[in-house]
Description:
The chain has helices spanning about 15-25, 45-60, 80-85, 110-125, 160-165, 170-180, 195-205, 210-225, 240-245; strands at about 5-10, 30-35, 65-70, 80, 135, 155-160. By secondary structure, it is α/β, with parallel strands linked by helices.
Amino acid sequence: MTTELRSISYGGGVQSTALLVLAAQGRIDFPTFLMANVGDDSENPATLRYVNEYARPYAAEHGIELAVLDRVKRDGTTETLMGRLTRAGSRSLPIPVRMSNGAPGTRNCTADFKIKVIAKELKRRGATAARPATIGIGISLDEIHRANNRKIEPHEEIVYPLLDLGLRRTDCARIIRDAGLPVPPKSSCFFCPFHRPETWHDMRREQPAEFEKACQLEDLLNRRRDELGKDHVYLTRFARPLREAIPDGVDLLPMFDEADGACDSGYCFT
Ligand code: SF4
């Protein structure tokens, strides 16, 4: 069956920005890019800056629609992930916080703030089970294990254009640079418990305000856990508060540049 709605799930990171360039060059057929914004107070601010300064103008220049979507609740108000986490009296723990054994807990942040937001928009634009939308996800060859890893909504058909083209993350960076754009930073919530230790170290050094906000969030969650008589949870796998787990001024040897493994392409990976 032919489908008319063709959209990329745009996460604002390297892979999905490469898809934007490929669409602009006519190498893939996706006129629409949808970005589910977890919140201006939640997404990596460097990603939001990149989207506004580079991705939006580039998309507009090439006749591609890049729509940034907020999560809108039934009462019409916008909800951010940070807002949900910090709401007074909230017991909600939607992000994959680490238990004392380091394992991530279950999460519904990706589903609520990304997958459902995009699914709702596709429905609004007319996608149905009989006429599903095609949604392209920016998974590159080096991350092939993440493909086919999510529940598919009945009105969506998932495709992986980077896999079809045999492109790796390094190819994506080259495609972006060759188009005259800077390579974007990793996109994710700045407090995501899936961050690798190197990401936390980089954040402490380069984005101290976000690092401090992440520490404060972890403190808040644990004050609540204390009130409920529950054990502490952490944003790292080290079973220690973030401030101690990621000491100031310590340089880690750079590891190979792999995404952190959460939501870089705006969908749900483990
Ligand atoms: S980046 Fe992390 S915290 Fe944010 S929505 Fe994805 S899994 Fe949840």
